[in-house]
Every structure is written in structure tokens, then in C-alpha cells.
Design a protein that fits this description.
This protein has 330 residues and is of the alpha/beta class. It is built from 15 helices and five strands.
Length: 330
């Protein structure tokens, strides 16, 4: 099997290659791992491999089915996820998949359903999926992605072959990111990759958002300071924003993602977008949903004021007070 530019996870790729090359890929596969480790990319590669008509290793990347899969227009490959970044994966989606699975493929030997972030399915949705996993039509293949095997019902995981993906090394992440963003500064990319724990997806997201390792680290410090017993750590952390408007704007672009990630974790899922998973987990564990929503709303307002060129020293002072109040009042 040809994994094209998917880096890392040599053992998992070896197992999947043997199954695909022998025509023995099971009807249901579960790919697990942290956000940005390549689960969704691998799911699409598996779909293309099943439908590829090229010669030699599959997917060839050159034939018509491969092009259609990679462009997201193949009539026999269907990709689903939750309706929005925070909401659950609803049962209506699974009901539609079950109904559609009874219809023969349009032009390929298989119909492939990619269910991304399946750990965000409601219990009802997972139970609805169970019947299809137990008695799928011979031409149906299901590829699920989730943050962890434990986040799915055991009745689901017992009917899937699970492959756990790990984050790649920092250097592998840097190489992969620089291939896609040759204009990026390599040292800055390396710092972000280290901060993101080797997550290629998170590193790319932070680069595209114009984030730096300094702004990301400071956003993390502010998040941790919200949980401190006194206001002093938050005063010190936010004080660094008073004389640097560029840094302040960058931090204010990360904090909403951090609070959003904490909310997502409270709902039991992902993906995480801030590149600060440790801090997001801490906030999720110690703050209520109401507190996190208030923090998210307030920070978004401060971003607007910052862009409107409000007095920065006064704005940062007020930011510290508001963040502290939101994190303390339940």
C-alpha cells in the first residue's frame, strides 16, 4: 500500500499495508489518536486504496477513482462528522448511513463511509450504528476515527479492528510541515511542533493562524493562572501583554481556541484546535461549562476592542480582572 506523504506510525502502516495488499481489510476499522496525528488523512488513503484502479501499489494517486476520493467527489465515498465543532455526532446521521448502505455502489466495488470524530457520537448514535457493524452488506466498508478507543462503547470497538496512531517526532513534524509550508520559518516551526507534541495538524493550524511559540506559551500560562488560588500569576502573565500589541493580539486569538477546547473536552470529545491540550484538560477539569462559556465570550469581546485600538494598558488591566472573575464565579 502506498501511504504517499503520511509520515510516522511505521508499525500501523505496515499492518494496514499487509491487510490491504492481501485484500483482507475488515469491514470496520477504527483509527485512534490525538488531534492532528493523521487519522483523517489515513482514512481517506484507505478509502482510495479500496477503490483504486491503478497498477502496482494502491492508492496510485493517478487513476480516476483516486482523484475523486482525494478531491472529495467520489460517489461511493461518504465522509461524516458532527454538525459543528462542539456539538455531538447526532443519531440522524447514522440513520442516514444505515439507510444509504442498503443501496448498491454507483461505480466502485465498495461503498466507504468515513465517520470522523466518532467519539462524539451520542450513545443513541453508537447504538444505531451497531446493527450496521454487525450485519453490513458485503460491499460496505466503515472507517471510524476517534481520539481514543476508550471513548467509544465497547460494543462498537469489539466489532472494529483498531489501529492506534501516535504523534510523530518533532523533526518528522517539522519536515512534513515545511513540505506544505515552505515559506514558514523552520526554527519557529520547530518550536511550535514541540509545543504541539508532534501534532502536524496542530502545528499547521497555529502557523496558518499566525501564532508563535511565544504567544502560544503565554496563552497557556494565562490559562493555568486562572486556576491559581491567588490573582498574582494571572497579573504576571497578562502584564506581558501591556507593551506588545502584536503579542497581545496573538494571545487573544489563541485564548478563545483554548476555552473552546476545554468546552469540547467537557462534552467528551475533540478535535482540539489551540495546540495546548494539557492546559485545555486542566481547565475542563476545574471549570464549569458556564465559566468556560463566559470566558470565551469575554475574550472574544476583548479581541474586538484590541482591534479597535483601545488603550492597551487599560484593556489588559481589565482583561485580567474579567478573566479572574469569570474563572472564580460559578
Amino acid at each position: 500500500m502506498n501511504f504517499h506523504n503520511l509520515v510516522g506510525n511505521r508499525s500501523v502502516k505496515g499492518q494496514l499495508a499487509r491487510l490491504v495488499d492481501a485484500g483482507q481489510l475488515p469491514h470496520a476499522v477504527l483509527l485512534t489518536g490525538q488531534n492532528g496525528c493523521g487519522k483523517r488523512t489515513l482514512a481517506r488513503l484507505l478509502a482510495a486504496a479500496l477503490l483504486c484502479r491503478g497498477e502496482g501499489e494502491v492508492p496510485c494517486g493517478q487513476c480516476s477513482p483516486c482523484h475523486k476520493v482525494f478531491e472529495g467527489i467520489h460517489p461511493d465515498v461518504f465522509e461524516y462528522a458532527s454538525a459543528d465543532r462542539v456539538g455531538a455526532f447526532h443519531i440522524d446521521v447514522i440513520r442516514h448511513v444505515r439507510s444509504d448502505a442498503g443501496i448498491l455502489p454507483n461505480e466502485a466495488p465498495y461503498k466507504v463511509y468515513i465517520l470522523a470524530n466518532a467519539h462524539r457520537m451520542t450513545v443513541q448514535a453508537q447504538n444505531a450504528l451497531l446493527k450496521l457493524l454487525e450485519e453490513p452488506p458485503s460491499y460496505v466498508r466503515l472507517i471510524l476515527t476517534a481520539d481514543a478507543r476508550q471513548s467509544m462503547l465497547s460494543t462498537i470497538t469489539s466489532r472494529c479492528m483498531t489501529f492506534g496512531l501516535e504523534a510523530v517526532s518533532t523533526e518528522e513534524a517539522v519536515e512534513a510541515v515545511m513540505e506544505r509550508r515552505p515559506d514558514a520559518d523552520e526554527n519557529q516551526t520547530r518550536e511550535l511542533a514541540q509545543l504541539c507534541g508532534g501534532s502536524i495538524g496542530d502545528t499547521l493550524s497555529m502557523l496558518e493562524a499566525g501564532m508563535t511559540s511565544q504567544s502560544a506559551q503565554l496563552a497557556g500560562y494565562i490559562g493555568e493562572a486562572l486556576l491559581a488560588p491567588t490573582e498574582l500569576p494571572l497579573l504576571i502573565a497578562t502584564g506581558k501583554l501591556q507593551d506588545d500589541k502584536i503579542l497581545a493580539r496573538a494571545v487573544l486569538s489563541i485564548l478563545p481556541l483554548l476555552f473552546r477546547d476545554a468546552l469540547v473536552l467537557r462534552e467528551g470529545g475533540g478535535p482540539l484546535l489551540s495546540g495546548l491540550p494539557k492546559t485545555a484538560h486542566q481547565l475542563s477539569s476545574h471549570l464549569t461549562r458556564r465559566q468556560l462559556l463566559r470566558l470565551l465570550e469575554e475574550v472574544e469581546d476583548f479581541s474586538l476592542w484590541m482591534n479597535a485600538n483601545a488603550n492597551q494598558a487599560l484593556l489588559v488591566t481589565r482583561l485580567c480582572a474579567v478573566l479572574r472573575r469569570c474563572s472564580q464565579n460559578r
